[in-house]
Amino acid sequence: MHAIEKILAKNSGKSSVKTGEIVTAKVDFAEINDLYLQTIYSFYEMGGEKVWDRERCAFVFDHYAPTPDIKSAANHKEMREFAQKNGLRFHFDTNCGVCHQVMPEAGVIYPGMIVVATDSHTTTHGAFGAMGTGCGATDMATILMTGELWFRVPEIIEVRLEGEAPKGVFPKDVILAVLGKIRADGAVYKAIDFTGSYVEQLGVPGRMTICNMAVEMGAKTAYMQPNQAVLDYVSERAVRPFEVQYTDPDFEYAETYVFDVSTLEPELACPSSVENVHTLESVTSAGDVLLNQGYIGSCTGGREEDIAVAAKILKGHHIPPYTRLIIVPASRDVMLACLEKGYIQALVHVGATVTTPGCGACLGAHEGVLAPGEVCITSTNRNFPGRMGSTEASIYLASPATVAASILNGRITDPRLYL
């Protein structure tokens, strides 16, 4: 069996499972973000009284942090009351950050577990050798009541990433290249196992970036075999013992895609689809793409190494007049680390606006939404019309380095010129 299949078998009390089989499995951790107040209503409508385990579920206030309007403030109020009533051990309020960043930092994510959250980018946690997937409010209410959920064992495809990335090519460029080939519907309800020499040497932040965007191909979940960097990270934080699951050496994937990372260049996902991927050079050779906003943040591109590379490129310069750069650290811990190392101060001097850790404008709610006709280059994960504000705005997805180099010039620019 594959490691994902072993996780599903273990949590459903079975000796083995196979593709297509429906199983009812125990959930090791459940997370509800502040878009899903309906979870509480569904919980009570179905007869729920107390959550099944106060130590295995949490609310994370990240999409509206701090609240930008009365409705979201009222939602937070009801969620806080529910969390207090149930005595939840983990509650991540508006001072914490994005769910997919704060949960690993808190030690509730570890190899061999099943984590379900009301967020499609829960595939991120495959970076830790966990099975992470998203669900809606009714399914989450069922988990809060019983600690279990049904799953269909997914078909598993391999994305093998070999080689060493050249200068200026970051994990975001790699996953955009993968997206450009597999497309937005190429892995619907499948699991993606990222393998290969590039993955084996990749640190925790880069692994999280790649697994995060697996869902942009339709994937139900993602997986990476934990390396020493992951094991060290988790061992320092894990709130309970864990067991790494390994894929049997004779496992046969439904499909295999192979990428030579050493041949890649900086990539862009152009408006208005994540699969509309082109090399940066091919886009800029067709003419200047003028920018109104640069944005570095989210569960895809707001970690310490992302902010660090932006500070390195921009330090000593200043963004052009009538443009803006918004920096949104993925968590409080990320912000503190970046303050300690001077990255935040350097970016403020450059002219950047630094906002509260959280999702910010990634979902078009606040802290940097776009006006009609504006153009933004961003390290976030989606660029469909209306994602960051107006449906008439244009969004380019890129690595944080590309965002920094581009906003420095007011037009899309190759980061390799500054590295």
Structure description:
This protein has two domains: 3-153 and 215-240, Aconitase, domain 3, CATH 3.30.499; 269-408, 2-Layer Sandwich (Aconitase, domain 3). It is globular, with a radius of gyration of 21 Å. It has helices spanning 3-12, 38-45, 70-86, 99-106, 137-146, 171-182, 197-200, 204-212, 228-237, 280-284, 298-301, 304-314, 332-340, 343-350, 400-409; strands at 22-26, 29-33, 57-60, 90-92, 114-117, 131-134, 148-152, 155-162, 190-195, 221-223, 255-260, 267-269, 277-279, 293-297, 324-328, 353-354, 375-378, 394-397. The strands form five sheets. It has a five-stranded parallel sheet. The chain is of the alpha/beta class and 419 residues long. It contains 15 helices and 18 strands. The longest helix has 17 residues, at 70-86.
Number of strands: 18
Task: Identify the CATH architecture of the largest domain.
Answer: 2-Layer Sandwich
Point out poorly predicted stretches: none
Number of domains: 2
Strand order within the widest beta sheet: 4-3-2-5-6
Radius of gyration over C-alpha positions, nearest whole angstrom: 21 Å
> CATH superfamily of the largest domain, called what?
Aconitase, domain 3
Structural class designation:
alpha/beta
Share in helix: 25-40%
- CATH top level label of the largest domain: Alpha Beta
Kindly report the CATH topology of the largest domain. Answer: Aconitase, domain 3
Profile the largest sheet: 5 strands, parallel
User: What is the CA-CA span between the terminal residues?
Assistant: 43 Å
Compute the average pLDDT.
Answer: 98
The gross shape turns out to be globular
Number of helices: 15
- What percentage of the residues does DSSP assign to strands (E)? 15-25%
